[in-house]
Amino acid sequence: MTKAITKTDEAPQTYETENDIAPNRRLALNELMNQRLADAVDLQMQMKQAHWNVKGPSFIGLHELFDKVAEAVEDYVDLIAERIVQLGGVAEGTVRMAASRTRLPEYSNEIAEGMAHVEAVARALSTFGQAARSTIDEANALDDADTADLFTEVSRGIDKWLWFVEAHSQAKK
Question: DSSP characters for 22-84?
Protein backbone atom coordinates (compact mmCIF):
# COMPACT_ATOMS: atom_id res chain seq x y z
CA MET A 1 0.00 0.00 0.00
CA THR A 2 1.34 3.43 -1.00
CA LYS A 3 0.86 6.25 1.44
CA ALA A 4 1.47 9.97 1.11
CA ILE A 5 4.22 11.62 3.11
CA THR A 6 3.93 15.32 3.83
CA LYS A 7 6.73 17.06 5.76
CA THR A 8 4.92 20.38 6.34
CA ASP A 9 1.89 22.12 4.92
CA GLU A 10 4.18 23.92 2.48
CA ALA A 11 6.37 20.97 1.53
CA PRO A 12 5.58 19.18 -1.72
CA GLN A 13 3.66 15.97 -1.32
CA THR A 14 5.71 12.83 -1.91
CA TYR A 15 5.05 9.12 -1.81
CA GLU A 16 7.14 6.32 -0.43
CA THR A 17 9.02 4.41 -3.09
CA GLU A 18 11.69 1.77 -3.28
CA ASN A 19 13.58 4.00 -5.72
CA ASP A 20 17.14 4.20 -4.39
CA ILE A 21 17.63 7.92 -5.06
CA ALA A 22 17.85 9.60 -1.65
CA PRO A 23 14.59 11.30 -0.58
CA ASN A 24 16.16 14.76 -0.35
CA ARG A 25 17.53 14.41 -3.90
CA ARG A 26 14.16 13.16 -5.15
CA LEU A 27 12.49 16.22 -3.63
CA ALA A 28 14.98 18.51 -5.36
CA LEU A 29 14.59 16.66 -8.66
CA ASN A 30 10.81 16.80 -8.45
CA GLU A 31 10.86 20.52 -7.73
CA LEU A 32 13.17 21.04 -10.70
CA MET A 33 11.05 18.87 -12.98
CA ASN A 34 7.80 20.52 -11.88
CA GLN A 35 9.30 23.83 -13.00
CA ARG A 36 10.10 22.33 -16.40
CA LEU A 37 6.63 20.74 -16.48
CA ALA A 38 5.06 24.18 -16.03
CA ASP A 39 7.25 25.54 -18.84
CA ALA A 40 6.39 22.57 -21.08
CA VAL A 41 2.63 22.91 -20.53
CA ASP A 42 2.94 26.60 -21.35
CA LEU A 43 5.05 25.81 -24.43
CA GLN A 44 2.49 23.29 -25.65
CA MET A 45 -0.30 25.84 -25.37
CA GLN A 46 1.83 28.52 -27.04
CA MET A 47 2.30 26.16 -29.98
CA LYS A 48 -1.48 25.65 -30.14
CA GLN A 49 -1.96 29.44 -29.99
CA ALA A 50 0.27 29.79 -33.05
CA HIS A 51 -1.42 26.82 -34.77
CA TRP A 52 -4.91 28.26 -34.28
CA ASN A 53 -4.11 31.86 -35.22
CA VAL A 54 -1.53 31.80 -38.02
CA LYS A 55 -2.53 33.70 -41.19
CA GLY A 56 -0.94 34.45 -44.53
CA PRO A 57 0.41 32.77 -47.64
CA SER A 58 2.24 30.05 -45.69
CA PHE A 59 -0.84 29.28 -43.60
CA ILE A 60 -1.24 25.57 -44.25
CA GLY A 61 2.45 24.70 -43.88
CA LEU A 62 2.84 26.67 -40.66
CA HIS A 63 -0.54 25.57 -39.30
CA GLU A 64 0.49 21.92 -39.73
CA LEU A 65 4.04 22.51 -38.44
CA PHE A 66 2.88 24.25 -35.27
CA ASP A 67 0.44 21.41 -34.61
CA LYS A 68 3.22 18.83 -34.99
CA VAL A 69 5.39 20.81 -32.57
CA ALA A 70 2.50 20.96 -30.08
CA GLU A 71 2.06 17.18 -30.35
CA ALA A 72 5.77 16.59 -29.73
CA VAL A 73 5.74 18.93 -26.74
CA GLU A 74 2.71 17.05 -25.38
CA ASP A 75 4.90 13.92 -25.39
CA TYR A 76 7.60 15.83 -23.46
CA VAL A 77 4.98 16.98 -20.94
CA ASP A 78 4.02 13.34 -20.38
CA LEU A 79 7.64 12.18 -20.04
CA ILE A 80 8.41 14.86 -17.47
CA ALA A 81 5.21 14.29 -15.47
CA GLU A 82 5.71 10.53 -15.39
CA ARG A 83 9.31 10.92 -14.22
CA ILE A 84 8.14 13.11 -11.34
CA VAL A 85 5.68 10.43 -10.27
CA GLN A 86 8.31 7.68 -10.67
CA LEU A 87 10.37 9.51 -8.06
CA GLY A 88 7.45 9.64 -5.62
CA GLY A 89 6.38 13.17 -6.45
CA VAL A 90 3.19 14.77 -7.61
CA ALA A 91 3.14 16.16 -11.15
CA GLU A 92 1.79 19.71 -10.92
CA GLY A 93 0.48 20.00 -14.45
CA THR A 94 -2.83 21.79 -14.55
CA VAL A 95 -3.06 24.86 -16.76
CA ARG A 96 -3.49 27.06 -13.67
CA MET A 97 -0.46 25.52 -11.98
CA ALA A 98 1.59 25.96 -15.14
CA ALA A 99 0.45 29.55 -15.59
CA SER A 100 1.53 30.46 -12.07
CA ARG A 101 4.99 28.87 -12.46
CA THR A 102 6.06 29.14 -16.09
CA ARG A 103 9.21 31.07 -16.87
CA LEU A 104 8.45 31.41 -20.58
CA PRO A 105 7.61 34.88 -21.85
CA GLU A 106 3.91 35.44 -22.58
CA TYR A 107 2.87 34.62 -26.16
CA SER A 108 1.27 37.66 -27.74
CA ASN A 109 -2.31 37.32 -28.91
CA GLU A 110 -1.68 40.24 -31.27
CA ILE A 111 0.26 38.04 -33.71
CA ALA A 112 -1.44 36.93 -36.92
CA GLU A 113 1.06 36.95 -39.79
CA GLY A 114 2.97 33.73 -40.39
CA MET A 115 6.51 35.07 -40.06
CA ALA A 116 5.66 36.84 -36.81
CA HIS A 117 4.46 33.48 -35.47
CA VAL A 118 7.66 31.84 -36.73
CA GLU A 119 9.73 34.35 -34.73
CA ALA A 120 7.60 33.97 -31.59
CA VAL A 121 7.57 30.16 -31.79
CA ALA A 122 11.34 30.08 -32.37
CA ARG A 123 11.87 32.30 -29.32
CA ALA A 124 9.63 30.08 -27.15
CA LEU A 125 11.36 26.89 -28.34
CA SER A 126 14.79 28.40 -27.79
CA THR A 127 13.90 29.56 -24.27
CA PHE A 128 12.54 26.14 -23.35
CA GLY A 129 15.53 24.39 -24.95
CA GLN A 130 17.92 26.45 -22.86
CA ALA A 131 15.99 25.51 -19.69
CA ALA A 132 16.01 21.83 -20.68
CA ARG A 133 19.80 21.90 -21.10
CA SER A 134 20.16 23.57 -17.72
CA THR A 135 18.02 20.80 -16.25
CA ILE A 136 20.44 18.20 -17.66
CA ASP A 137 23.25 19.82 -15.70
CA GLU A 138 21.16 20.15 -12.54
CA ALA A 139 19.99 16.51 -12.72
CA ASN A 140 23.60 15.40 -13.17
CA ALA A 141 24.59 17.46 -10.12
CA LEU A 142 21.89 15.57 -8.19
CA ASP A 143 23.38 12.24 -9.43
CA ASP A 144 20.33 11.31 -11.51
CA ALA A 145 21.54 10.17 -14.92
CA ASP A 146 18.03 8.99 -15.87
CA THR A 147 16.47 12.44 -15.45
CA ALA A 148 19.47 13.98 -17.23
CA ASP A 149 18.95 11.50 -20.07
CA LEU A 150 15.25 12.33 -20.27
CA PHE A 151 16.06 16.02 -20.64
CA THR A 152 18.76 15.20 -23.19
CA GLU A 153 16.01 13.55 -25.25
CA VAL A 154 13.72 16.55 -24.74
CA SER A 155 16.50 19.00 -25.62
CA ARG A 156 17.38 17.09 -28.77
CA GLY A 157 13.72 17.12 -29.84
CA ILE A 158 13.29 20.82 -29.12
CA ASP A 159 16.42 21.59 -31.16
CA LYS A 160 14.95 19.64 -34.09
CA TRP A 161 11.67 21.55 -33.92
CA LEU A 162 13.53 24.84 -33.60
CA TRP A 163 15.42 23.96 -36.78
CA PHE A 164 12.15 23.17 -38.62
CA VAL A 165 10.60 26.46 -37.49
CA GLU A 166 13.67 28.64 -38.13
CA ALA A 167 14.09 27.19 -41.61
CA HIS A 168 11.04 29.33 -42.58
CA SER A 169 12.97 32.51 -41.82
CA GLN A 170 16.48 31.59 -42.92
CA ALA A 171 16.12 31.62 -46.69
CA LYS A 172 17.72 34.44 -48.62
CA LYS A 173 15.25 37.17 -49.45
Answer: -HHHHHHHHHHHHHHHHHHHHHHHHHHHHHHH-BSTTHHHHHHHHHHHHHHHHHHHHHHHHHH
Q: Are 55 and 113 in contact (CB under 8 A)?
A: yes
Residue 25 CA to residue 31 CA, distance in Å, equals: 10
pTM: 0.91
94, 44 Cβ separation under 8 angstroms: no
Q: What is the CA radius of gyration of the chain?
A: 18
- Domains, the chain, ranges and CATH? 21-166 (1.20.1260.10)
Name the burial class of residue 4, with classes exposed (0-12), middle (13-18) and buried (19+) by CB atoms within 10 angstroms of its CB: exposed
pLDDT in tens, 54-73: 999 999 999 999 999 999 99
